[in-house]
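Aim 2 progress update. The chain analyzed this quarter is reproduced below.
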Amino acid sequence: MSGHSKWSTIKRQKGITDAKRGLIFTKLSNAITIAVKQGGGIGDPTQNFRLRLAMDAAKTANMPKDNVERAIKRVLGKEAGDLEEVVYEGFAPGGVSLIIEATTDNSQRTTSLIKSVFNKTGGNFGQPGSVAYQFKQVGQIGVKKEGKTFDDIFALAAESGAEDVEDLEKEVLIYTAISELIRIKDKLVGKGIEVIDSQVIRKPIVKIEITDDVILSKIGNFIDAIEDLEDVQKVYSNIA
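Predicted structure tokens:
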């Protein structure tokens, strides 16, 4: 199983900081709406796996309950319109592979905005399938150590059926099969583990290590610019 990842720690800490921005509520609302829409209009999180994950993320970000209910009603009230999920692929500076997930009601606008960031920051916009094969979709559970060692959490995660575990100093990331994500999360909570979040992610099959601080800074700025776009939900890279 995995060891410590400096890049994962940096991005994890940034994600927590970004959650304080008002922009995150718009992104969470879109994620909830898409979850209901793709779930056949099911607005009950106990019957819609993806909706439960989106609502858990909204709760973690302290998103008001009214916002969550409005996001669900957008679909039930036929107000979601042309909102859809779009996936982009490409390369950041240094040849780092990227997958970008977005939700949009105007894919031409979103594509233009994302291409503009690639062009301005030294990235290369890719064609569908150009990097997708380098990633696999898995479940990810972020947990706090809270007095427990990495070995303690490792043992509990393995016992619960996790596939991999990664140490991020104060936190631990636990990876699962998508179908096992909710079961393992609930099992860990039952064992006294404090779960920060749980989500389905695209995990790189093979990671590359970037040691040049200048290139790392360029990559960070590039990903920041992509993440600041309102339509963008998540950005994945294969940096170690």
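The chain has three domains: 7-76, 85-131+208-237, 134-204. The longest strand covers residues 135-144. These observations will guide the mutagenesis experiments scheduled for the next reporting period.
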